[in-house]
Design goal:
The structure is a single chain. This protein has helices spanning 9-16, 25-34, 53-63, 79-88, 111-127, 140-147, 159-164, 170-186, 202-205, 218-227, 229-240, and strands spanning 3-7, 39-42, 70-75, 92-95, 131-136, 153-157, 190-194, 211-216. The protein is α/β, with parallel strands linked by helices. It has a single domain, classed as Alpha-Beta Barrel (TIM Barrel), CATH 3.20.20. The protein has an eight-stranded parallel beta barrel with strand order 1-2-3-4-5-6-7-8, surrounded by seven helices.
Length: 242
């Protein structure tokens, strides 16, 4: 079974647009947990345009009463972000190579150019007792380099799959992800996935074995508006159960 971790960034974006705590990130975390999800993901950015650093602290306190739920915090490892990880100690920290003003994550780490920077960060995260994960394009060469960094998992950036889904190129693109996932398992790395996965394209993607976790926020939030929260989450959980 693949775990479903719901990204709450869009809930926070709605909240911030009105200047008060509605909708509440904590309340929605509780709603998703009650519906059966296995994890909560947040991705604070330097401008705090959606998730705020305080949300991470509040979620950590809230999840103390839900020990079965994992907290995954994503972000670029600048000094502020790493101080947050040291303080909060989430179950998992997913490192992404985002620029300061980047709209959304759109590429994985380049370990040819960035290994010297990211490898000691991964070591520090591991030393804090937090499971490290590195955001990665579906590239076997990058995967082999990432495996040397000490990261415990990778998160496959699935945009290229989402773009190919339903087109003639889908089979070929999906096979590339399958090969990377298989090699990751052989190298002892856990495999997560995320970005533009939705109710339509997720079933085909999870034909790949050994995907431990999918992190989904934008599409899931929209689908909750379209189909209702309970129905949407149940459909995702059914897909993740295979």
């Amino acid at each position: 079974m693949t775990d479903l971790s719901v990204n709450l960034n869009k809930i926070a974006l709605l909240r911030n647009s009105r200047g008060r705590n509605y909708p509440s990130v904590i309340d929605f975390a509780g709603k998703f947990i009650a519906l059966g999800v296995q994890g909560i993901t947040i991705h604070p950015r330097p401008d705090e345009r959606h998730i705020k650093y305080a949300d991470a602290r509040d979620l950590k306190a809230f999840l103390a009463d839900h020990p079965q739920i994992e907290l995954n915090i994503e972000g670029f490892p600048d000094e502020v972000f790493l101080a947050l990880i040291e303080e909060v100690r989430p179950h998992q920290c997913t490192l992404v190579p985002d620029a300061v003003n980047q709209l959304t994550s759109d590429h994985g780490w380049d370990f040819h150019q960035q290994a010297e920077f990211v490898t000691p960060v991964i070591a520090q995260i591991n030393d804090w007792g937090v499971r490290s994960a590195a955001f990665l394009d579906p590239d076997t060469e990058q995967l082999e380099l990432a495996a040397r960094s000490g990261t415990k998992r990778i998160e496959l950036y699935t945009e290229s799959y989402a773009q190919a889904w339903g087109k003639d190129s889908q089979t070929l693109v999906l096979e590339g992800y399958r090969q990377v996932s298989q090699l990751a398992s052989e190298l002892g790395l856990g495999v997560n996935a995320g970005h533009d996965l939705d109710l339509n394209n997720l079933p085909d993607f999870l034909s790949i074995p050994n995907i431990l976790e999918v992190s989904i926020g934008h599409a899931l939030t929209v689908e909750c508006i379209e189909h209702g929260m309970s129905d949407t989450v149940q459909r995702y959980l059914d897909i993740c159960r295979g």
